[in-house]
Design a protein that fits this description.
Number of strands of chain A: 8
Helix content of chain B: over 70%
Largest sheet of chain A: 8 strands, mixed
Strand content of chain A: 5-15%
Strand content of chain B: under 5%
Radius of gyration of chain A: 31 Å
Number of helices of chain B: 2
Number of domains of chain A: 3
Order of helices and strands of chain B: HH
Number of strands of chain B: 0
Mean pLDDT of chain B: 72
Structural class of chain A: alpha/beta
Distance between the termini of chain A: 83 Å
Shape of chain B: elongated
Helix content of chain A: 55-70%
Shape of chain A: elongated
Distance between the termini of chain B: 72 Å
Number of domains of chain B: 1
Low-confidence stretches of chain A: 1-10, 39-47, 629-633
Low-confidence stretches of chain B: none
Oligomer: heterodimer
Chain lengths: 713, 54
C-alpha cells in the first residue's frame, strides 16, 4: 500500500512539487512555507513561470517548486503541460520531484480530489494540504481530515495558508509523505482489458519507474496527443500499442475520456461524501447569497460604479499628504543640491533635469500604490471575477469574447501584458478585436498625467468624479471601438466562454502587500531609470543651444533699469523657446493649438511616446529650465501660473482636453512594437496608431472648442 | 569647467544608456528587454485560472 521516503533528508535537498487546482490556496501555502524567499525564472522556451524556494523541514532543508495551477494532468494549456511534464520527469533540465505536496481545497472537494487521484497515480510519495478549511467550516461543510487521511492512505494536514495555521504540522507531514495505493478506480471491463496492453507496452518501453507505469498507462491511453514526450521516448511501438487499444475500446462503444472522468468523479464524490462531517446544505451558500446582490442585473453595475468611485476618491484623499511630503522632499533636494554645487551647468542639469524630471513622477507613487492596493484587495476577495461576470453581458453585446476581460482589465495596469495575454483567445477575430482596443483602456502610465492635471486644475470635490470619468471614457470608447470593428473588419460569431466565480475569501495581507510592493517597485524603477535618463537628455535638448542674442537683449533690458527678476524669467523662457526641444514643440504648435495646447505641452506629447508618464517629467524639465527659481519643483504650481496659447492661462478646460487626448491617443512605442510582433505585420499597429490618434485629436478638439463655445474658460 | 565636463558626461551616459536599452528591446522584442515578458505570463496565468476547462 505505501512506502516511506527512501531518500534521507540530510543526504540532499528534497525536491517537493506543490500541485493543485487554480484558486485552491496554493500560493498562500507556498508563501507560508518558504517565507517569500522565492526565485522566479521561466521553464525553457515557454511563458510559464518557474517559481522555486527553499523551505525548512524537520531534519533538513527542501526545495519547494510551485507548479502552475491545473485541473488535470491531461494537459490542455501550456501551463498544464509544464505541470504534467515536471511531475512525470519529462521536462528537460528539471529533475523529477521526490515528493508531491498536493493542495486540496476543502470547499471544492470533489473537483480537487479528481486531480489528486491523478497525482496519486504518478508513483511518487504524496502529502495532502487540505486548504481553505476555515472557509469550509464557516460555510457549514467542514471536512474530517482524519477520515480523509484514512480514505486516501496519505498524510492529510488541514491548513489555512493565509494565517499560517498548521504549517509546522504540514512541514512534518511532508517528511512522512507516502506512495499511494495506486489506481483505486476501474474502467468498465472492456476498458481494463485494452488498458492492460498499454500497461504492458509502457513497462516494456521503460519510460517511467515501475511504480509509475500504471498511472502513465492510463494517461497515455486516455488523453495523450501524438506529440506527447512519452511517445517520443517510448518509440513507435508504444504509440502503436496505444492507438490499437483506443481503436478496440472505440469499437466496443466506450468513450475512454468520458469513462475515465465518470470513474474518477465517482471515486471523488464517494470520498467527499464520506469525509464531510455534514452534508452540503441544500440552500444557497454565503457566497451565493452575496452574489445575488453583487451580480444582480441592476444593483450589480450600480454597486460596481459606487465601489470604483469610492476607490478613486480615496486615491486622491489619502494620497495627498504623502504626495505633499514627496514634493517637499524633491524641493528640499533641489535646494540642497543648488547650495552644494553652486550655480553652474551641472546644477542646472541635476535640479532642472534629474530632480524636476524624476521627482515630479515620483510624486504620484502614493496614488499608484493606493490604486493597486484597492484593486488587489478586490481581486483577492473574489470581487473582480464578479466584475468580469457583470461586464460579460456588455462585452458580448459589442462582440468581445469573455476571455477578453482579463487582457482588458490588466490593460488598466499596462496594455502590453494585456495584448500578449490575448494569445489565450483561440479565435483570430476575437483576438484581433481585443488587441486593437486594449490600448484604449486607461493604463497606469496615464495616471500621473490625470493626477497632475486634476491636482492642478480641478477643484476639490470634483477630482474623483473627473478621474472616474476618464476611466469610464476609456472603457466606453473601447467598447464602442470593439463594436465598430466587429461590424466592419472582424464580422462573425463570438465564441462561448465559461467563467468560474470563486468563493469570497478574506484577502491575505501578505499577498496584497506583495502585489502593491511589486507595482510600486516597477514604478520607482521606471522613474529611476528610463524617466531619469529621458529627463537628462530632454534637459539637454531644452537647454541648448544658448542664444547670445537672447542674452544680449536681457542685458540691454537690465541696463535700461527693468526689474531683474522679470528680465531673468523672460530670458529663461526665451532660451527654452529657441532650444532644440522648443523648436520641435513650436513646429507642432499650430496643429495642437486648437486643442488648447502650447509648444511646451507639444514637447511633452512628443516625448511621451517613450512612455506616457514622461509627459509629466517633460513638463517638469521644460518648466524647470524655464524657471529662474531653482528650488521650486512643484509642477502643479508652475502649471497654474503658466500661460497657454494666445496668452490665455491654462484652465481646467485645457486640463480636461489634455486628459481626453491621453485617454484616446496611442502614445506608446512599446505597445505598437508588441502589436506588430503579435500580429506579425506592421499593418495593424499602424491602423491602431491611426485610428487612436484621430480619436484623440477630435475628442480633444471637441472638448476644448466645445467648452470655449459654451463660454467656459 | 569640471561642472561642464560632468554635465556633458551625464547627458552622454543617459543618451547612451537609452540607446543600449532600445537595442536590447529590439533584440528581445519585449519592452522590458527580458527574454520573456513577466507581466504577460502572469496575466495569461490569471486567464487560465478563471477559465474552467473541464
Amino acid at each position: 500500500m505505501s512506502s516511506p521516503l527512501e531518500t534521507p533528508l540530510s543526504a540532499r535537498p528534497l525536491r517537493v512539487a506543490l500541485a493543485g487546482n487554480p484558486n485552491s490556496g496554493k500560493t498562500s501555502i507556498f508563501n507560508g512555507l518558504t517565507g517569500l524567499r522565492h526565485k522566479v525564472a521561466n521553464y525553457p522556451g515557454v511563458t510559464v513561470e518557474r517559481i522555486e524556494a527553499e523551505m525548512a523541514l524537520p531534519g533538513g532543508r527542501a526545495l519547494l517548486v510551485d507548479l502552475p495551477g491545473c485541473y488535470s494532468l491531461h494537459a490542455r494549456a501550456e501551463d498544464e503541460r509544464i505541470a504534467r511534464d515536471v511531475l512525470l520527469g519529462l521536462e528537460p533540465g528539471v529533475p523529477r520531484p521526490d515528493v508531491i505536496l498536493a493542495v486540496v481545497d476543502a470547499t471544492n472537494l470533489e473537483r480537487n480530489l479528481f486531480f489528486l487521484t491523478q497525482l496519486m497515480e504518478t508513483g511518487m510519495p504524496v502529502c495532502v494540504a487540505l486548504s481553505m478549511v476555515d472557509v469550509a467550516e464557516r460555510s457549514g461543510i467542514p471536512v474530517d481530515a482524519a477520515a480523509l487521511e484514512e480514505a486516501l492512505g496519505l498524510p492529510v494536514v488541514p491548513v489555512v495558508g493565509r494565517t499560517g495555521r498548521n504549517l509546522p504540522a504540514l512541514r512534518e507531514a511532508i517528511a512522512r509523505a507516502r506512495r499511494a495505493a495506486g489506481r483505486t478506480w476501474r474502467f468498465p471491463a472492456a476498458g481494463e482489458e485494452t488498458l492492460a496492453s498499454v500497461r504492458e507496452a509502457v513497462a516494456k518501453a521503460a519510460i517511467v519507474p515501475p511504480e509509475a507505469v500504471e498511472g502513465e498507462a492510463v494517461r497515455l491511453f486516455v488523453d495523450a496527443e501524438d506529440d506527447d514526450p512519452s511517445f517520443a521516448r517510448g518509440g513507435t511501438a508504444l504509440l502503436a500499442a496505444v492507438r490499437d487499444a483506443r481503436a478496440r475500446l472505440a469499437a466496443a462503444g466506450i468513450d475512454r475520456e468520458a469513462a475515465e472522468a465518470e470513474c474518477r468523479y465517482a471515486l471523488s464524490n464517494d470520498v467527499a461524501r464520506r469525509v464531510r462531517r455534514v452534508a452540503p446544505s441544500p440552500g444557497p451558500s454565503r457566497s451565493e447569497r452575496i452574489d445575488r446582490v453583487l451580480t444582480h442585473r441592476v444593483l450589480g453595475p450600480l454597486i460596481y460604479l459606487a465601489i470604483m468611485g469610492l476607490i478613486f476618491q480615496a486615491v486622491y484623499a489619502w494620497a495627498e499628504p504623502f504626495m505633499g511630503w514627496i514634493e517637499a522632499g524633491t524641493g528640499w533636494l533641489g535646494g540642497a543640491v543648488s547650495g552644494l554645487l553652486g550655480p553652474g551647468l551641472l546644477t542646472d542639469l541635476v535640479v532642472d533635469g534629474a530632480i524636476a524630471g524624476a521627482g515630479n513622477i515620483l510624486v504620484f507613487l502614493p496614488q499608484i500604490c493606493l490604486l493597486f492596493l484597492f484593486l488587489t484587495i478586490l481581486d483577492d476577495i473574489g470581487y473582480l471575477s464578479r466584475a468580469a461576470f457583470l461586464v460579460d453581458r456588455v462585452m458580448r453585446g459589442v462582440g468581445l469574447h469573455g476571455k477578453a476581460f482579463i487582457p482588458l482589465m490588466s490593460s488598466f495596469a499596462c496594455a502590453i501584458p494585456g495584448i500578449m495575454a490575448t494569445r489565450t483567445i483561440e479565435s483570430r477575430r476575437d483576438r484581433m478585436v481585443t488587441i486593437l482596443v486594449a490600448p484604449l483602456m486607461s493604463c497606469s502610465a496615464r495616471l500621473p498625467v490625470y493626477a497632475l492635471m486634476i491636482g492642478a486644475f480641478i477643484p476639490e470635490g470634483w477630482q474623483s468624479i473627473t478621474l472616474l470619468s476618464m476611466y469610464a471614457l476609456s472603457v466606453g470608447v473601447a467598447l464602442l471601438a470593439a463594436f465598430v470593428l466587429r461590424k466592419t473588419l472582424f464580422r462573425g460569431e463570438v465564441s462561448t466562454f465559461i467563467l468560474e466565480l470563486p468563493r469570497y475569501k478574506v484577502p491575505s495581507p501578505r499577498d496584497v502587500a506583495r502585489t502593491v510592493y511589486d507595482r510600486g517597485a516597477v514604478f520607482v524603477k521606471q522613474a529611476g531609470t528610463v524617466i531619469l535618463a529621458i529627463s537628462i537628455v530632454l534637459w539637454f535638448l531644452a537647454y541648448f543651444p544658448r542664444s547670445d542674442e537672447v542674452k544680449e537683449r536681457a542685458e540691454a533690458r537690465l541696463a535700461a533699469g527693468e526689474p531683474e527678476e522679470q528680465v531673468r524669467a523672460d530670458e529663461a523662457g526665451e532660451q527654452v523657446r529657441q532650444s532644440f526641444a522648443g523648436r520641435l514643440g513650436r513646429a507642432i504648435e499650430p496643429a495642437i493649438e486648437p486643442l488648447g495646447f502650447d509648444w511646451r505641452i507639444g514637447i511633452g506629447i512628443i516625448s511621451s511616446f517613450a512612455a506616457r508618464e514622461v509627459l509629466v517629467s517633460s513638463l517638469g524639465v521644460v518648466y524647470g529650465v524655464g524657471e529662474v527659481d531653482e528650488t521650486s519643483t512643484a509642477l502643479r504650481d508652475q502649471l497654474r501660473a503658466a500661460e497657454g496659447p494666445g496668452g490665455r492661462r491654462f484652465t481646467w478646460l485645457t486640463a480636461v482636453s489634455l486628459m481626453v487626448f491621453f485617454v484616446l491617443a496611442c502614445q506608446c512605442m512599446s505597445t505598437l512594437a508588441v502589436v506588430k510582433r503579435e500580429t506579425n505585420s506592421w499593418r495593424w499597429p499602424l491602423f491602431m496608431f491611426g485610428y487612436m490618434t484621430v480619436l484623440a485629436y477630435f475628442g480633444s478638439l471637441l472638448v476644448y472648442q466645445g467648452g470655449l463655445a459654451l463660454g467656459f474658460q | 569647467m569640471i561642472q561642464q565636463v560632468l554635465a556633458y558626461a551625464l547627458v552622454a551616459l543617459a543618451a547612451g544608456w537609452l540607446l543600449w536599452r532600445y537595442a536590447k528591446r529590439r533584440a528581445t522584442g519585449n519592452c522590458c528587454g527580458e527574454a520573456e515578458c513577466p507581466a504577460a505570463k502572469a496575466t495569461a496565468k490569471r486567464i487560465e485560472e478563471l477559465s474552467r476547462r473541464r
